Amino acid sequence: MGEKEEEEEENRDKRIQSTAVLAGRHGFPFLRSVESESADSGIGDGDELPVPQQILISNVTCDSFKISWNMESRGQDRITHYFVDLNKKEDKSSNKFKHMDVPTKLVAKAVPLPMTVRGHWFLSPRTEYTVAVQTATKQPDGEYAVSAWSEIVEFCTADYSTVQLKQLLLKAEAIAGRMLPFTVFYRNQQREYFQPNSQFYRSRDAQCCRMLPSVKDNSGSHGSPISGKLEGIFFSCNTEFNTGRPPQDSPYGPYRFQIQADLLFNQNTNAYFGDFYCMYTSYHYVVVVLAPSGSKGDIFCRGKLPALDRSNNCFLSCSEEEDGSLSFRHAQDVILEVIYTEPVDVSLGTVSQISGHQLMSLSTLNAKKDPSCKVCNISVGR
Question: Where is the Fibronectin type-III domain (predicted)?
Answer without folding.
Answer: 51-160
